[in-house]
Specification:
Length: about 350
């Protein structure tokens, strides 16, 4: 039975308005309900083709009705394995590598239409969350890629006649799965950092980093500044040590996320001593917060999205105090976190 089917789906779906294809000879279409008047109604936006026993399905097993009134996939045929693929073919009719079977064209990968004259735009479904509406004709590699990252390509999909290819931004290599993998410029030596700086790899790029210690501090290793001996009380209020750490984050990190863990060197502390973890300086107040995991461990947490932030600096302090009166600060240690945010989600 053929006819035009219309179905009003839930609010987020548009009305389905696809012409129902003919059931293949020696086969059936599933996913359609016929009322007592013989009117067809789609049970969902998908239909399924099955062949009678002994016949082999050629073409799409599943087709989905798109909002523009067309079906994904290509026409389906139930082929009698006893018949040759070309027995009834008009070889000039099926284009782009399509084969004729049962009087109609079974299209090669990347094409659809009665004569396989139409190119499947694989990139149209790039951002769909599942493989469901990717035409069956798309190769299994593309489907695997779609499963990996919700689209055929991680970054950009370029449709071509009968196929497609993926493009990555500069600073990334394209993987065969369609994923974009960061180039580590620091390990392959393609960075241009001068000798007095260190290369730090980031998503899509790299940074040349250098630590300058504040006055009255001495650099004791590439990323550690230790306070010199103090001559007055004011000096003793400054942190004993400043550690520098560099962090690379993707743009769309969904908060809350633990960013950095700070542990006191003293794993056990006397009863009258408390460790306090806090942010004492931040380039982006409100975006980061602190939680205390246990008496000796504090965690810097991303509390708000990084949208638009490219670089951030946070001074994360461990303050050791006496908990009995008179309260006294025994020591302060600061970790200066320099955070680089990738312009992409990967
Ligand atoms: Ca990089």
């Amino acid at each position: 039975m053929t006819g035009k089917v219309e179905k009003q789906m839930s609010a987020e779906h548009k009305s389905l308005n696809c012409s129902l294809p003919d059931a293949p000879p020696n086969g059936h279409i599933l996913g359609i309900h016929y009322d007592t008047n013989g009117a067809a109604e789609l049970l969902s936006d998908e239909i399924y083709f099955v062949c009678e026993e002994g016949f082999r399905l050629i073409g799409s097993e599943t087709r989905k009705c798109l909002p523009n009134g067309t079906w994904t996939g290509s026409s389906s045929t139930c082929l009698d394995p006893k018949l040759s693929l070309t027995s009834e073919c008009d070889v000039t009719k099926c284009l782009n590598g399509g084969k004729c079977a049962g009087g109609s064209c079974v299209c090669g990968r990347g094409y659809y239409g009665n004569s396989c004259e139409l190119d499947i735009d694989e990139c149209r479904n790039q951002n769909q969350p599942t493989t469901e509406i990717i035409p069956d004709d798309v190769g299994s590699m593309a489907k695997r890629a779609a499963n990996d990252n919700g689209g055929l390509c991680r970054h950009k999909c370029v449709n071509t006649p009968g196929s497609f290819h993926c493009v990555c931004p500069q600073g990334y290599n394209l993987h065969k799965s369609g994923d974009c993998r960061d180039v580590n410029e620091c390990s392959i030596g393609s960075h241009n950092c001068s000798r007095d700086k260190q290369c730090f790899n980031t998503g899509g790029s790299f940074e040349c980093v250098h630590v300058t210690c504040p006055n009255n501090y001495r650099r004791t290793s590439p990323f550690v500044c230790e306070r010199d001996s103090c001559r007055n009380a004011n000096c003793r209020k400054n942190p004993i040590r400043i550690n520098f750490n560099f962090i690379d984050l993707p743009r769309s990190l969904p908060p809350p996320v633990d960013i950095y863990r700070m542990r006191a060197k003293k794993r056990t502390i006397p009863e009258n001593v408390r460790n306090r973890f806090q942010i004492v300086r931040s380039s982006h107040p409100g975006i980061f917060g602190v939680k205390k995991l246990d008496p000796v461990t504090g965690i810097l947490v991303l509390r708000r999205p990084l949208d638009g932030v490219r670089n951030a600096t946070v001074d994360f302090e461990l303050r050791e105090t006496t908990s009995t009166r008179p309260r006294r600060i025994n020591a302060k240690y600061v970790t200066r976190l320099v955070i680089f945010v990738s312009p992409f989600d990967f």
